[in-house]
């Protein structure tokens, strides 16, 4: 399908999302520090000290990650194909007392200086892009030699998540394509030391609780945002420990919700 048409639809959807968002309600620290923020906590440990690092956040959305990285001392550039999202990310930075440089551009055509960034981060974006090889090429181009990238996105295999996606028709776009392990192989063509780590298998019972116990329809609240809100997780934390084992098993880890992929520019 025509990339420009998809980009236009995605931009319109995310512009409307941004327009209906209250800055004070965007959970910045929770997106990295909540017990359920497993992907971001993992990435943050792998990144190390961010002070003085130039960091590119591709598909920055509302700006939670951009602002959090800036609060850790990074010099952050936030990109998104949605002008509304970029404006929100910049304003969210001002709200939290940090500066975010915003650029409206799709991930497949980054309008950023080449060889400029120490780190590239992209959350829930790869499964939106229309040309994944071009996307990885753009990341490679933006990074300094030895610079590292980190992405995380949903996987395509879990039947529970696939049911959820069919129910959540109003809070996501039709053009999304969850990742497969072929995307890891694709990243290996452009980067060295590419690795991956999966998250959320038994812990997905939290989604079942939202639907069956709390009676929250997937179109009422985005479950992937709801996980960062305060709640009683005493019963859930042992499942996170169990997933530490399950996600090491080659076949079982395919049932994970999300996958982090990372590597470096050789």
Structural account:
- The chain has 266 residues and is of the alpha/beta class.
- It has helices at 3-19, 30-33, 38-47, 64-71, 83-95, 132-142, 159-167, 182-188, 205-213, 223-226, 237-246, and strands at residues 54-58, 75-80, 100-104, 117-123, 143-154, 192-199, 258-264.
- It has a domain at 3-155 and 176-200 and 258-264: Rossmann fold, CATH 3.40.50.150.
- 38% of the residues lie in helices and 19% in strands.
- The protein has a seven-stranded mixed β-sheet with strand order 3-2-1-4-5-7-6, with helices on both faces.
- The longest helix is centred in the first third of the chain and has 17 residues, at 3-19.
Topology, pairings included?
Elements: H1 3-19, H2 30-33, H3 38-47, E1 54-58, H4 64-71, E2 75-80, H5 83-95, E3 100-104, E4 117-123, H6 132-142, E5 143-154, H7 159-167, H8 182-188, E6 192-199, H9 205-213, H10 223-226, H11 237-246, E7 258-264
Parallel strand pairs: 1-2, 1-4, 2-3, 4-5
Antiparallel strand pairs: 5-7, 6-7
Helix pairs in contact: 1-5, 4-5
């Amino acid at each position: 399908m025509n990339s420009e048409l998809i980009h236009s639809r995605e931009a319109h959807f995310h512009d409307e999302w941004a327009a209906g968002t209250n800055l004070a309600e965007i959970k910045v620290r929770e997106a990295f520090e909540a017990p359920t923020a497993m992907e971001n906590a993992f990435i943050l440990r792998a990144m190390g000290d961010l002070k003085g690092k130039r960091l590119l956040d591709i598909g920055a959305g509302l700006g939670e990650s951009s602002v959090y990285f800036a609060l850790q001392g990074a010099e952050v550039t936030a990109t998104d194909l949605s002008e509304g999202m970029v404006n929100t990310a910049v304003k969210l930075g001002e709200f939290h007392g940090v500066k975010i440089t915003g650029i409206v551009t799709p991930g497949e055509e980054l309008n950023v200086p080449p060889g400029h960034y120490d780190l590239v981060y992209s959350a829930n974006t790869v499964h939106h892009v229309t040309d994944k090889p071009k996307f990885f090429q753009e990341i490679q181009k933006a990074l300094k030699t030895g610079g590292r990238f980190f992405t995380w996105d949903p996987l395509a295999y879990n039947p529970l998540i696939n049911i959820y996606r069919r129910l959540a028709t109003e809070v996501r776009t039709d053009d999304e394509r969850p990742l497969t392990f072929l995307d890891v192989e694709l990243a290996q063509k452009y980067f060295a030391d590419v690795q991956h780590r999966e998250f959320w298998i038994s812990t997905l019972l939290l989604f079942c609780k939202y639907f069956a116990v709390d009676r929250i329809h997937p179109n009422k609240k985005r479950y992937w945002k709801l996980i960062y809100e305060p709640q009683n997780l005493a019963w859930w934390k042992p499942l996170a420990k169990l997933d530490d084992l399950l996600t090491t098993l080659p076949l079982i880890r395919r049932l994970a919700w999300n996958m982090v992929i990372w590597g470096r520019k050789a």
